[in-house]
Design a protein that fits this description.
two-stranded antiparallel ribbon, 130 residues, flat, disordered N terminus, alpha+beta, three-stranded antiparallel sheet
Length: 130
Amino acid sequence: MFLILRRGFATNSSLLCSSEKIVAPPPSKMKINKSKVPKIREKDLEEKYITGWGPGGQAVNKTLNAVYLRHVPSGVWIKCHESRSLDRNRKTARKMLIEKLDLKINGEDSVQRQEERLASHKKNLKREKN
């Protein structure tokens, strides 16, 4: 992610380094690497529809509009009840599951951590300008 600039001189085809400086690329050059995001197969998922919760009263509490989604190989699970629509909750649950799996598998290289690093880098650059 970072470049190492070396300044020195060459003797007998070998480079002697007199100084090294680690320089971060400008934020416009920093890109989020999404190549390691895990792919989910439908046969690896266990999906259940459960009753909703929260505000909305009887209409929400009686209908099966929340989704419980579990990735069987890893054991990671998600409950999603963001809207009253079952289809929207299914799509949202899949996105949330992919994010959670990415964080578990890739750790510091996950998309979420990369976005956090980029945001903190931009924030630090703003501080330095002021």
